[in-house]
């Protein structure tokens, strides 16, 4: 292995391949950024500039405060909606999954395994199979065009329940028994012992579930018809539906760059906990 690491040819080849991969991945994002910093005329004129322009402040302020003309929602409002949805989905999934896994592992009740596998089998049902019945239920409850309608139908997670269950099963049975002998109630054991032990797993799942909630497209597309409840991904798509009018590409590209910002911030701010949660088994 040392010979491979000291081989300058292999080192050059591997680094070159890495650099090419980064360029291929980053170049489209760079083009979107450049388009968000120039005027509409410069975008429409061939060839489009590949150097950032002087309209960056104007375009981003327009996107955040007013959006495109006659649209009814700014990127700032839609970012707020997307953030509320992503936080609601991620926090809700984690809370429900923690309590469900806690019940399945540390309590004994009739049909416990049946209930767990019933939850687990929902992973085999694609979203498209259950989306129309779910829409009918949400519409019947009057939750269309609301934050509750965006969040509640996708707030449960069989995957997170399974992962927490598997992690809790690695905890020695002597630990809850010792806590019980010391006078701790089940909820005290959950809050003061189990939660601190699970913090890296929770952080790792939070990152994954936040991105999942932020990237939701099909469900918000169905349940939102009013611009004030559009998420940013839905808004960007509908900004493009201008018919015979000219799309305001500079504002759309600025909104697209803003759509990448919150997931990047979450990943960068929690990367250490995320990596530990994916690689460590804390006991």
User: What percentage of the residues does DSSP assign to strands (E)?
Assistant: under 5%
Fraction of residues in helix: over 70%
| Low-pLDDT ranges | none
Rg value: 24 Å
CATH topology of the largest domain: MetI-like fold
* CATH superfamily annotation of the largest domain: MetI-like
> What is the overall shape?
globular
Domain module tally: 2
Overall SS class: mainly alpha
State the separation between the terminal residues, measured CA to CA: 33 Å
Average predicted local confidence, pLDDT: 87
Q: Give the ordered list of helices and strands.
A: HHHHHHHHHHHHHHHH
Précis, in short:
The protein has helices at 2-6, 8-35, 40-44, 56-65, 75-106, 112-121, 127-140, 147-151, 158-168, 174-181, 186-197, 199-214, 218-223, 232-239, 249-269, 271-279.
Describe how the helices and strands are arranged.
Blueprint: H1 2-6, H2 8-35, H3 40-44, H4 56-65, H5 75-106, H6 112-121, H7 127-140, H8 147-151, H9 158-168, H10 174-181, H11 186-197, H12 199-214, H13 218-223, H14 232-239, H15 249-269, H16 271-279
Task: Outline the structure in words.
The protein has 283 residues and is mainly α. It has 2 domains: 2-65; 75-279, MetI-like fold, CATH 1.10.3720. The chain has 16 helices and no strands. The longest helix has 32 residues, at 75-106.
Task: Give structural attributes.
globular, mainly alpha, 16 helices, 0% strand, 283 residues, 2 domains, MetI-like fold
